[in-house]
Amino acid sequence: MRIDIITVLPGLLQGPMEHSIVRRAREKGLVEIHIHDLRDFSQDKHRRVDDYAFGGEAGMVIRIEPIDRAITYLTGQRNYDEIIYTSPDGMKFNQQEANRLALAENMIILCGHYKGIDQRARDQLVTREYSIGDFVMTGGELAAAAITDAVVRILPGAISDETSALTDSFQDGLLAPPVYTRPAEYKGWRVPEVLLSGHAAKIDEWKHAQSLERTRKLRPDLLDEREP
């Protein structure tokens, strides 16, 4: 897989791409991640990529020209399955979308910034828009990092125990059950006996019941989505 990220602040993305599972996946050759400075595609002598909004809207808007040049440069070298724009008014990014993107060969993530990007770029160049929550951040760089991390960690071979990713929260539409490790008792706080029983069927039944209970308590909206 290859992921190209276009941003006005490439420094914000360096750290998240150089540690933990993402770093190991890159070292294994499972994913290539390339970060592109949008200012490199500006023809302004000061490398500006933004301008005032038409209609008197407050805030600056990223111009369409450097966006088009950046995307044209990349798509001229290879085909892309998705050209993604990170935006607070995009569709909600979730585990199912991460699973879908993990099947892609190449994708571009365009990070929003300032007041946003010229709508024509969204209409003509972007194939999918994602939001990571109902809030607004300074820019889309951290959202791009979150999307990248969520996708890369489920690539085959990215983590040593691939079954671990399959039991993460949201993979089956439920929150994950609680987890415990040694010691079995600490300050009188005991691990549930069923987890120490070695009875696989009973353990699976307990985990499913706990997932349902936690989801019902913490994220009842997920159960509503599961209803036909």
Give descriptors for this structure.
228 residues, alpha/beta, Alpha/beta knot, 2 domains, five-stranded parallel β-sheet, two-stranded antiparallel sheet, 10 helices, 9 strands
Question: So what's the overall shape?
Answer: elongated
Pick out the low-confidence regions: none
Mean pLDDT: 93
Please give the order of strands in the largest beta sheet.
2-1-6-5-7
Q: What proportion of the residues is helical, as a percent range?
A: 25-40%
CATH architecture of the largest domain: 3-Layer(aba) Sandwich
Total beta strand runs: 9
- What is the class of the largest domain in the CATH system? Alpha Beta
The H-and-E topology, N to C, reads as EHHEEEHEHEHEHHEEHHH
What Rg do the Cα atoms give?
21 Å
Instruction: Sketch the major β-sheet.
Output: 5 strands, parallel
Classification by helices and strands? alpha/beta
As a percent range, the share of strand residues is: 15-25%
Number of domains: 2
* Number of helical stretches of at least 4 residues: 10
- Could you name the CATH homologous superfamily of the largest domain? SPOUT methyltransferase, trefoil knot domain
Beginning-to-end CA distance, first to last residue: 34 Å
Q: What is CATH's topology name of the largest domain?
A: Alpha/beta knot
